[in-house]
Amino acid sequence: MCEANAYLRKQGEEDELFLEMVDHVLPHEDGLMLEDIFGKRKMIKAKIVELALVDHKIILERA
Amino acid sequence: MCEANAYLRKQGEEDELFLEMVDHVLPHEDGLMLEDIFGKRKMIKAKIVELALVDHKIILERA
User: Fold this and answer.
1) SS3 B3
2) HEC states along A1-61?
């Protein structure tokens, strides 16, 4: 399976895990909707700042 | 390998393949920089409108 983990990037800190095993990411009027492979959804006011798919990483920053 | 293919979405048309086997996506001052698993890079004035990672798809729309 080629899901990825979504991390929140904060200045001067380590990336913080936000949601594991993400399948879908969709822009929403007020940020992003992430859905994992089990259908669990989380919303966040953030933008994508990096995808590193071979490393299974989605990096987000709060918008 | 968990790379994905990047497609360009156009209204009323089928998604058009833009770059295969994408590993990295990074925002750029004027759009996105996509890099495939071989290190080949393509720039595009576009935004991410959907990720479907289990299906290996990145969907873009011109900004």
Assistant:
1) coil
2) CCCEEEEECCCCCCCEEEEEEEEEEEEECCEEEEEECCCCEEEECEEEEEEECCCCEEEEE
Task: Specify the pLDDT at position B14.
Answer: 94
Domain that holds residue B12: 4-62
B63 touches chain A (CB under 8 A): no
Residue from B5, B36, B41, B54 to probe the interface with A (highest A Cβ count within 10 Å): B54
Q: What is the pLDDT of residue B32?
A: 98
Per-residue pLDDT tens, chain A, 63 aa: give them.
789 999 999 989 999 999 999 999 999 988 999 999 999 999 999 999 999 999 999 999 998
Which residues in chain A are contacts of B48 at CB distance < 8 A?
25, 27, 48
Per the structure, the count of domains in chain A is: 1
Please state the ipTM of this predicted complex.
0.92
